[in-house]
Amino acid sequence: MGLLATFRFAGVLKEPPEAERITLEPVTLTLQRPSETFERIDRPAQNVWTQEGASITAGIDIATYHEGCAESPFYGYDGLTFRTYVNASVARGRLSTVKISFHPVDANAVVFVSEARWALDLENATLISLHYWGTNETDAYIKANVLNSSCSVSDQIYWVFLDENESHELEITVEVSHTGKNAIKIVTIPIELKMVSSGES
């Protein structure tokens, strides 16, 4: 340990660069809570970061609103099915990791990340860890290692409401690590998904 410190002090070993953290302003998608099942809600949302040959796009595609769905993971509750995705590429350096986190803001909703092979799609990436469910105290998340200078990560998400007609909010946070020649960048891209009850405008 003392020898390592001596080498660093003498300039033989360089200190690893401190990561530069970049956080975008959130993009918000607000939906009116239906009173019946809608098979297709065509409402996407995207948040994009580009800089010096690097590009990261985080987005969601809303699919179905379920009213009293008997199937897993709803089990008679209402909820929303949507797909989340991240597409990232860099012209120089490499991408290290991608993490997508899901945080229900209130206690009357939970979120589930699909573990099914048909739903989880990884291109130039390998799964490190997946936390299947999230509450207002514990996030659900997907974390992957990137194998190349470009990657794509997407999955099916289930947002379940434990009430009849309340408003809910889900915070989706994408974090991508990019290692360049002399710098490490950690880019955080937030998306806010809101479901507003029929009693609110």
Give an account of the 3D structure.
A hairpin with a 2-residue loop joins strand 3 and strand 4. With 201 residues, the chain is mainly beta. The radius of gyration is 20 Å and the shape is elongated. 4% of the residues lie in helices and 58% in strands. It has a single domain, classed as Immunoglobulin-like, CATH 2.60.40. The strands form two sheets. Strands 1, 2, 6, 9, 11, 13 and 14 form a seven-stranded mixed β-sheet that branches.
Task: Characterize this entry briefly.
By secondary structure, the chain is mainly β. It has one helix spanning 2-10, and strands spanning 20-23, 27-32, 44-51, 54-66, 78-90, 94-104, 109-113, 121-123, 125-131, 133-134, 140-146, 150-161, 168-179, 184-196. The strands form 2 sheets. Strands 1, 2, 6, 9, 11, 13 and 14 form a 7-stranded mixed sheet that branches. Strands 3, 4, 5, 7, 8, 10 and 12 form a 7-stranded antiparallel sheet that branches.
> Would you identify the regions where 5 or more consecutive residues have pLDDT less than 50?
6-10
Overall 3D shape: elongated
Helix content range: under 10%
Task: Provide the structure class.
Answer: mainly beta
What does the largest sheet look like? 7 strands, mixed
Q: Termini distance?
A: 62 Å
What name does the CATH topology carry? Immunoglobulin-like
Instruction: Summarize the helix and strand pattern as letters.
Output: HEEEEEEEEEEEEEE
- Extended strand count: 14
Average of pLDDT: 91
Oligomeric organization of the protein chains: single chain
CATH level-1 class: Mainly Beta
